[in-house]
Amino acid sequence: MTPRPIISFARLAPPKKGVAVVLAGDGDGLSEAAKACDPGNVLPRAFDVSEFKAKFGSAVDVIAPEKSPLDRLIAVGVGKAASLAETCWWRLGGSIAAQVKKAKEVAVVAELPSVTVGPGEAATIAAGILLRNYSFDTYKTKKDDANGATSDKPARIVIQCANPTAAKRAFAEVEGTVNGVLLARDLVNEPANILGPVEFAAKASELKALGVTVEVLTEKEMRKLGMNSLLGVAQGSVRPPRMVVMQWNGGKPKDKPVAFIGKGVVFDTGGISIKQAAGMEDMKGDMGGAAAVTGLMHVLAARKAKANVVGIIGLVENMPDGNAQRPGDIVTSMSGQTIEVINTDAEGRLVLADALWYCNDRFQPKFMVNLATLTGAIMVALGNAYAGLFSNNDELSERLTAAGQVTQERLWRMPMGAEYDKMIDTKNADMKNTGGRHAGSITAAQFLQRFVKDTPWAHLDIAGTAISSPATEINQSWASGFGVRLLDRLVRDHYES
Ligand code: BES
Ligand code: MN
Ligand code: ZN
Hints:
19% strand; binds manganese (II) ion; single chain; binds ligand BES
């Protein structure tokens, strides 16, 4: 496995070995600290020759001249330095990681002529480096394979900045966020033969070490609670289902909690309504919602968030089998409402129906946000640039959308309403689990809404953003960890005392 780089912070001083990375602003040039790394003055010429304009993320990479103690000198552009939003510092870290490649000794001279790189920004650069550096190579047994950087020696990366002590402190906090995102990515990337419901629950239970209260409901307990909607999905698998209830109580004891609920289908074959073979392997990631909730709980606990937060994940495997649920079966959910299962491949909503009801019933939360790789239709509507947002509450929607803009885990609100709701009516039961070909993501949301009463609620359909979304500056992995930074931001901005 590629070990994660060792990050440290130091004062600005010309590095004496390895690779030096300096920043260049558009119309701003290089800082004095950057120039001090380049006594031979090779960068200005290299800028000319390569027509480098310091555009954000662009770079010039030169072999250090003969007398220099360095191996390489890299300038990375930041664009107009004055207008760098928070997400730019994450992306900048990602761009830097991309440039230094496999170098083992790296110094990043985090300084610009017209903008002081503060401790928060320096720490965020480091966080961006770590996110970019992640690769899922647990099962690569050969070193330095062409398909992935595997090497046993960790890189040492020093971030040089004006206030290294404060930057180190800021990094200690943001590192929790990084670890939460990487936990989510790991869970999603892990194949289903390794990560079943029981194994996932065990991973979530590890959060106890951070002070999270974790309860794991077994099949028997869920049966007693009447969760027949969830259990119907699980019954075709030899692996028993689990529901994990995580609680982080960092807020005032009397404060109602906020709640996050995740779809955790460890593998979705479609069941008896079986999926086609092509691409079915992607369905190992059908627990991206549950992974995001677990990653989020990690982040909140790691930074001791001053909030009361509940995280609930429904873990099942959807398999075809002699005991599997059939199309036409009718199940009674925990809410008492009956569901006619038209298509066993519309299983995520069946899992969430009971998870949402249970959460609302037990915790009376301030709001519920559920995350799910719920429909292929959301990709038809939005591609992978935005996750779908469905909600019964404008304030919650606006807050989520704003958090999405800041973190660049973006959301687009979709319509809901009675016209769509009636599409899941059926004469055989209270509702059916599919609404036909049209508006597939919306009818799925309408289905979920029938299990939340009047509690402020939002459903994030992350089918297009949690898995196989395009590589970005801070993610090169199939699993993005989508939702962790978004929801951490939501809690941070609005729900901490
Ligand atoms: N897990 C899938 C949705 C999905 C598809 C997620 C592709 C990620 C990538 C979900 O359980 C599903 O199968 N949905 C069906 C619903 C249909 C049967 C109403 C779909 O989208 O086709
Ligand atoms: Mn399905
Ligand atoms: Zn599914």
